[in-house]
Design a protein that fits this description.
Blueprint lengths: L3 H11 L1 E4 L5 H16 L3 H11 L10 E3 L5 H4 L5 H11 L4 E12 L18 E2 L14 H4 L2 E6 L11 E2 L3 H14 L8 E2 L12 E2 L7 E5 L4 E2 L9 E11 L18 H9 L2 H6 L12 H10 L6 H8 L1
Antiparallel strand pairs: 1-9, 2-3, 3-11, 4-7, 5-9, 5-11, 6-8, 6-10
Helix pairs in contact: 1-5
The chain binds fe (ii) ion.
Length: about 325
């Protein structure tokens, strides 16, 4: 596993980096099996074989996606990876990072309608930044100040047949300066879509974000990218996503957790079972914080049955 600095340099230059070996292949494979069973009710291979027998592809059991947490440990537990958390903190330049949204993202070749379903027919269409997904303030020149970080773990190898995301290297630095002209010329909408990248000669050529199972694509919310259609529809792309920002910028970001907000058994179970470091991504104060008193710890024990509160108790013993 290479040093965090190696990847930080690439990220700062290109606005994204694919980091290999964040998860071992078996860990990625078990997460992939879990994800396939949520979407297909079986493995993808079984789904293809069943579809061949029946002469049609059944709709997915979940057409869109599952937000974080999804309630399945092999998937939700991927965030308990210190190397990934170190990378996220280094990129955002702070150890105070906050969850924005996350979940499972599947493009399933047999029934996939992206990008054609969005009226996109040509390879120069469909480019956009994802910044509006969680932030209601526009891009700033200082991307470190306002951009957030989108992580996507590859649950299987992502090659040309798995519709790798097309990313324009360096566009995260260019886009803030370009936006005024693009708006004036009608090329850029408020939802961060660029209707024709041929009109932006400043951009480098798009690069496909490919990698082995267990790699993680880390990309800036300022980075310009697009989806491409499946050439071979008997493929899929399954990724697990987790998006974070600096605690400071979280004040003007929106957060989406769980299918139905905080009031879910998934959220309660996840918080009961995860680590203090991961809880801090959701704004929980770290152990030692004055919030944790005998009274609040008693309430937390009742709120989240089974939670290990010992790290939060240490400062009370003194
Ligand atoms: Fe996007």
């Amino acid at each position: 596993m290479a040093s965090v600095q190696t990847y930080l340099d690439s990220y700062n230059r290109d606005g994204y980096v694919v980091v290999p070996d964040v998860f071992d292949p078996e860990r990625a494979a078990s997460a992939c099996r879990e994800m396939e069973s949520l979407f297909y009710g079986m493995s993808f291979e079984e789904y293809l074989a069943k579809s061949d027998r029946e002469g049609e592809y059944a709709p997915l059991e979940t057409a869109y996606g599952h937000q974080f947490p999804c309630g399945k440990d092999p998937l939700d537990g991927l965030i308990e990876n210190d190397y990934l958390l170190d990378l996220m903190e280094a990129i955002l330049g702070t150890d105070q990072i906050r969850f924005l949204f996350g979940g499972l993202f599947l493009r399933s070749g047999p029934t996939d309608t992206v990008p054609g379903g969005f009226g996109i027919e040509h390879s120069w269409q469909g480019y956009h930044t994802d910044h509006h997904t969680a932030c209601y303030l526009p891009h700033t020149q200082d991307s470190h100040f306002n951009a957030y970080l989108i992580a996507g773990a590859f649950l299987h190898d992502i090659e040309d047949d798995n519709v790798p995301m097309q990313i324009i290297p360096g566009s995260h630095k260019q886009i803030p300066g370009l936006i005024p002209r693009l708006i004036e010329e009608g090329i850029f909408s408020h939802w961060c879509s660029i209707n024709d990248i041929r009109k932006i000669p400043e951009f480098a050529a798009p690069v496909p974000a490919k990698g082995k199972a267990g790699s993680v694509l880390l990309r800036s919310s300022y980075g310009v990218h697009a989806a491409i259609p499946f050439r071979n529809k008997r493929n899929r792309r399954a990724t697990w996503g987790f998006t974070v920002c600096s605690a400071e910028s979280s004040a003007w970001m929106t957060r989406h957790i769980g299918e139905r907000g905080l009031d879910t058994e998934f959220t309660h179970t996840f918080w009961a079972n995860t680590t203090p470091r991961v809880r801090s991504l959701f704004g929980w104060p770290m152990p030692g914080h004055p919030y944790y008193t005998r009274e609040t710890l008693g309430l937390l024990a009742a709120w989240y049955p089974g939670i290990d509160l010992s790290p939060y108790e240490e400062h009370l013993a003194a």
